[in-house]
Amino acid sequence: MSFVRGVLCGHFTDPRRPTGCTVVIAPGGAVGGVDVRGASPGTRETELLSPINAVQQVHAVMLAGGSAFGLDAAGGVMRWLEEHGIGIQAGPARVPIVPAAILFDLLIGDPLIRPDAAAGYAACQAADEEAPAEGNVGAGAGAMVGKLFGIARAMKGGVGRAAVTVNGITVGAIVVVNAVGDVIDPATGRVVAGARSADGLSMMGTTQAFLRGELPAELWGGSATTLGVVMTDAVLDKTGANKLAQMAHDGLARCINPVHTITDGDTIFALGTGASGQSANLTVLGSLAAEVVATAVLRAVRAAVAIGGPGLPNVPAAADFA
Predict the structure, then answer these.
(1) Residue 132 is part of a domain; what is its CATH number?
(2) Is the separation of the CB atoms in 114 and 141 below 8 Å?
(3) Cβ neighbours of residue 300 closer than 8 Å, sequence gap 6 or more
(4) How many domains does the structure of the chain reveal?
(5) pLDDT of residue 222
(6) Does 2 fall in a domain?
(7) Number of alpha helices (DSSP H) and beta strands (DSSP E) in the chain
(8) 54 in any annotated domain
(9) Cβ(15)–Cβ(43) under 8 Å?
(10) In sequence order, what DSSP letters do the residues of 127-178 get, joined into one string?
(11) Type and span of the H or E element at 290
């Protein structure tokens, strides 16, 4: 059974260092929306998703590591889509519409290695209808969380996904968690992954540290970011897709603290394929979107595994503290 009807998901993970990219493809086109909440975003083709602008469908969304360099991966997605006859017919040309967003992972391994057009193309080649892989893959390969007290006290982030089907309509999400803040289980209030104590042996709780008057390390803008794509097979218009992306951010706020900061570029895209043939109450749809985003965030850090070795920092994962 497909993850969400009308979409394909794929990863490319660079074997030379922890980085990569993740693609969500809508072969039949999808109505798209976006909501950018972080103050340090790196994005492409987001303005055309505004309801007041003319383009009505997108054909893929690309998420990548590599900071701003990673936006090159979208070019490879465009080439793959063009080769498969997917895009808007513009006279003699077929032009795929590929919004994209990136995260910062250049502190792990050789920063000259980052996703490019070949990486984006490879992610498309790997895409299928199945639920996408999680953990240290794709755009989440080099992701970390809990960076506010320095990279040496951070933990491994990654990719997570979740989906629910209610009354014949599916809402799914794929989220790449590279947050500056902690990831918290909203059911228990416990920090699952985040900034560690000075000895590295326990979670310190970033908000609790702030309340004690402890100050964070100096970070520069764009050094973090959580990215996501919410997908549904419901019928949406562009206004609805943008509202869905907006409401989906509530899922980040439930389990990342702090979130939407000056150093994050938090961005969520929404895609409506209409493959179910059904419309839905947007309030219900948005509530489901927030739920799957929150679940995907938790799954991302729980699926992540520690990294380390020559040329790499030692970054533990949530599994090491279970």
Answers:
(1) 3.60.70.12
(2) no
(3) 134, 135, 140, 143, 157, 158, 159, 160, 175, 176, 177, 183
(4) 1
(5) 64
(6) no
(7) 5, 18
(8) yes
(9) no
(10) -BSSPPP-BSSGGGTT-EE--TT-GGG-EE-EEEEEEEEETTEEEEEEEEEE
(11) helix 282-303
pLDDT one-digit tens code per residue, 240-285: 999 999 999 999 999 999 999 999 999 999 999 999 999 999 999 9
pTM value is 0.96
* Bridge partners of residue 162, in order along the sequence: 173
Residue 3 lies in a domain: no
Residues 6+ apart with CB under 8 A from 199: none
- 92 lies in which domain range? 8-321
Contacts of 164 (CB under 8 A, 6+ apart): 170, 171, 172, 288, 291, 292
Mapping DSSP to helix (H, G, I), strand (E, B) and coil, where does residue 26 land? strand
What's the mean per-residue pLDDT of the chain?
Answer: 95
CA distance 291 to 276: 20
Q: Is 262 exposed, middle or buried (0-12, 13-18, 19+ CB in 10 A)?
A: middle
How far apart CA 149 and CA 199 sit, in angstroms, is 12
pLDDT in tens, 65-81: 999 999 999 999 999 99
Q: Is residue 302 part of a domain?
A: yes
Backbone angles phi, psi at 93, to 5 degrees: -110, 155
